[in-house]
Amino acid sequence: MSKNELIRLDGITKSFNGNVVLKSLNLSVMDGEFVTLLGPSGCGKTTTLRIIGGFEMPDSGDLYFGGERINALSPDKRNINTVFQKYALFPHLNVGENVAFGLRLKGVSDRDVEKRVSEMLELVDLSGFERRSVTSLSGGQQQRVAIARAIVNEPKVLLLDEPLGALDLKLRKEMQVELKKLHERLKMTFIYVTHDQEEALTMSDTIVVMNGGQILQQGSPIDIYNEPANRFVADFVGESNIIPGRMPEDCRVEFLGTVYDCVDRGFEKNEQIDVVIRPEDIVLLEEGENSIQAHDRLLKGTVKTCLFKGVHYEMIIETGDFDFIAHSTVAEKIGMQMYLDIDPDNIHIMKKSSLETMTEMEYRLEHDPDAVMEEE
Amino acid sequence: MRGNKIASVPYALWLALFTVVPLVIVLFYAFSDDAGAFTMDNFSYMGLYAVVFFRSFRLAVLCTVACLILGYPMAYAMSRLSKTGQTVALILIMLPMWMNFLLRTYAWLTILENNGLLNHFLSFLNLPEVNIINTPAAVGLGMVYNYLPFMILPIFTSLTGMDESLIEAARDLGCNERQVFRKVVFPLTIPSMLSGLIFVFIPAVSTFVISKILGGGANMLVGDLIEMQFLGGAYNANMGAAISVVMMVVIMIFTAITNRLDSGEEGGVLMS
Ligand SMILES: Nc1ncnc2c1ncn2[C@@H]1O[C@H](COP(=O)(O)OP(=O)(O)OP(=O)(O)O)[C@@H](O)[C@H]1O
Ligand SMILES: [Mg+2]
Fold first, then answer.
1. Nearest CA to A351 among A267, A252, A240?
2. DSSP 8-state secondary structure symbol assigned to residue B128
3. Handedness of CA A365, A369, A371, A375 (dihedral sign)
4. Which residues lie closer than 8 Å to A202 by C-beta, 6 or more apart?
5. Is the CB of residue A37 below 6 angstroms from any atom belonging to ligand 1?
6. Among the four A79, A191, B41, B103, which has the fewest Cβ within 10 Å?
7. Ligand 1: does its nearest atom lie under 6 Å from the Cβ of A213?
8. Residues B168, A84: C-beta atoms closer than 8 Å
9. Distance A192 CA to ligand 1 centre (A)
């Protein structure tokens, strides 16, 4: 992957009917990168993509492509192609002519068109489908035609708006792998939209987490997962236990009344923070298990629920002040007393004051209104 | 399944009573003389009316083509209006259709008459007066005026119902505005144009009254001819039925050809 910046959004703001949808968005995409815009429904992912594609004009801010400002450039003049959410295949053209559409506009000779269309169809595993009607294809096949139709033009950038949204889980997983392979092979820049965090984690070089028209965090999947910038990111990307706490000193964190070792430093003395602990990082130990003697400060709790989730069991462990979600491959009996063992490496500290769009109160009202009411 | 069959009995009866039975009666009349004996004479004598057939057919084709040429741009312009604009335009198109047909046609008479509105207007502008009433042109004008909505409506519906993302996809793949129309919008409206052609051609080819009012005696059409066989001086129900049968066959052939064109589009290599 080369390190040149290809696309830059600089203070992009967009509103519809007085409704601000994008709030001064800044985003930089490197040449050849696989960037995923991830966020809940209505957060402005599609709008961002449409601005890059040229289908919406930003109200203010600048859009750069290879260093050139392209705010007013029409979509046909941008070296960008799109795979639309609902594929948008031309029903009056057969599969071959759909794929050939862009090439014919460029005046590529019939012979070359034929050759490249058949190459593309082979690439997306639809060899010999040239003469089929697009309406006779399954969802997954239509989706692959849509991809072939876009990449046959060899754009610098491919925009994909939830391209796998309509597919069943199995096909979805297969297509994720296919798309990732395609990206590696074509060395194009992919900007991918999804609200499926797992998909984002699997496929991307960079994830951009959005909410309410703003970017909350941008980073590699590992960074986003392990070092979420704030509660929202932690909650949206994977399941997590988020506990308010305090940093009495570097590498020491206090929460739920106990001080633990951790690996984070650089906080002010006694700074109020949020602690993130992923459910799979909690090791459940029974009373009397050997390792317990070494961890006399372990949290103790009662198993409240235990649900089978396929690969693992999901348990809620009640500790009095906080209900933990924990994952384990072993089921525990409801009502059992368990110890929660958490490695210092897996205790992630987030600053309170980071980019959060919701205030603490709004957030809690949305997620746990009862608790808020009780406090008052 | 049984329930469905019972439920469909009234409709089957209706069809039998009002479609099959009348058709059989018409066919019987067409192939018999006034004594009820089988004959082909009704068809062999029809050659006498070749001029009328030709005039009707020519006028219907011209009217249909004119409706397409006028109606497509109108439907397109309407589809580009705002939602309110579209509703207003639709009402304006439909409104005359709610007015009685005879009234509308007599209105044209007062406009086109030799001392009618048109000529008053022309002489007001110091232009030479025209003699248009009682010519095929006047009949054609009346027909286009009456049947134009049947062309506009299906095309308009198809244009406004078009998936916006198809247009965006075309732009995305490199079409400028004009190419979007030529390569995507127009081909996608072809089926609706074909419906429009059928909707206009069928009433146009069997038009009557318009030709009487605006065309005078000299521009008789097949519709008038049939009317004459049943109500006029030339009373001959057998001949009237035979002419109707011929018209039916003409319309069936026209519809079949149009449908063929439609399904031919499906393959889609036509417009590359
Ligand atoms: N053309 C439009 N007119 C009015 N409002 C719009 C328009 N397009 C988008 N919006 C609004 O902007 C907000 C963001 O929409 P957008 O489609 O970008 O969300 P999204 O993140 O793609 O959501 P989803 O995951 O549901 O697709 C939404 O509240 C939506 O209602
Ligand atoms: Mg969207």
1. A267
2. P
3. positive
4. A176, A180, A221
5. no
6. B103
7. no
8. yes
9. 16
Structural domain including B54 reads: 47-271
- Chain B residues near residue A133 by CB distance under 8 angstroms: 266-268
Q: What is the ipTM of this complex?
A: 0.79
Judged by a CB distance cut-off of 8 A, whether residue A322 touches chain B is no
Residue A66 Cα to ligand 2 middle (Å):
25
Nearest CA to ligand 1 atom 30: A42
| Assigned CATH for A231-351 | 2.40.50.100
DSSP assignment of A74-99: -GGGSSEEEE-TT----TTSBHHHHH
Q: In angstroms, rounded to a whole number, what is the distance separating the alpha carbons of residues A100 and A142?
A: 15
Cβ of A16 less than 6 Å from ligand 1: yes
Does the beta carbon of B262 lie under 8 angstroms from any beta carbon of chain A? Answer: no
Ligand 1 in reach of A194 Cβ (< 6 A): no
Instruction: Name the minimum distance, in Å, from the CA of A132 to any CA of chain B.
Output: 9
Structurally, how many domains does chain B consist of? 1
Residue B102 lies in a domain: yes
C-beta separation of A229 from A355 below 8 A: yes
* Coil vs helix vs strand at A300: strand
Q: What is the CATH number of the domain that holds B241?
A: 1.10.3720.10
B60 domain-assigned: yes
CA distance A298 to A258: 9
Phi–psi pair at B47, nearest 5 degrees: -50, -30
Kindly identify which residue of chain A lies nearest to residue B262, measuring between CA atoms: A92
Q: How open is the CA angle A125-A131-A134, to the nearest 5 degrees?
A: 75
| pLDDT tens for chain A, residues 1 to 376 | 446 899 999 999 999 999 999 999 999 999 999 999 999 999 999 999 999 999 999 999 999 999 999 999 999 999 999 999 889 999 999 999 999 999 999 999 999 999 999 999 998 889 999 999 999 999 889 999 999 999 999 999 999 999 988 788 888 888 899 899 989 988 899 999 998 888 999 999 999 999 999 999 999 999 998 888 888 898 888 888 889 888 888 888 888 888 888 888 888 888 888 888 999 888 888 876 666 555 556 788 889 988 998 888 999 998 888 889 999 888 888 888 888 888 888 888 888 754 444 444 444 445 555 554 554 4
Nearest C-alpha of chain A: how many angstroms from B32?
49
B184 within domain boundaries: yes
- What is the per-residue DSSP string for B35-47? TS-B-SHHHHGGG
Nearest Cα of chain B lies from the Cα of A63 at a distance, in angstroms, of 17
Specify the residue with its C-alpha closest to ligand 1, atom 3.
A16
Fold topology of A5-226: Rossmann fold (3.40.50)
| All CATH 3.40.50.300 domain ranges in chain A, comma separated | 5-226
**Beta carbons of B166 and A90 less than 8 Å apart:** yes
Please, where in chain A does CATH 2.40.50.100 lie? 231-351
| Closest CB from A54, A74, A105 relative to B173 | A105
